[in-house]
Amino acid sequence: MNKIPSKRVINGTYGAVWVNGEKWLDVETFEGKVVINYEDVNMPGDGATHKKMTGWAGEGTMTVKKVYSRGSALLADFVKRGQIPDINIVGKIADPDAFGAERVAINEVTFNEFMLMKFEQKTLGTEEMPFNFADYDPIDLISA
């Protein structure tokens, strides 16, 4: 039986994120995922509950180290005017020991909230930025 060498497992240290073309060097964690929506389908004479896809929703979250006022700088003025800016995100992970790199473009991003201010004594600051999206394009995928 073949084994996969442990050095081939992707290390998140080599991840990077670009928001509207600007590389954010302060990103600590990043996650973008697609949640598939289903409705139950019942068939006569069959006790199983089957599923029919009815759509999908894109959601994710990004945590940044509190170096800049990321959320406020990106959203505050727009939100006060009752607008949402056009936001696109590109995520990339390229561990030099892995079998390749992975890159995805996430489009039509809407951030759900942003932090005006948060701090805790003797604690490094972070800002969590949950978001949704309506389109995505895998650019590079790792394959066997």
UniProtKB/TrEMBL annotation:
InterPro entries: DUF2001, XkdM-like_sf. It holds the Pfam family DUF2001. This is Phage tail tube protein.
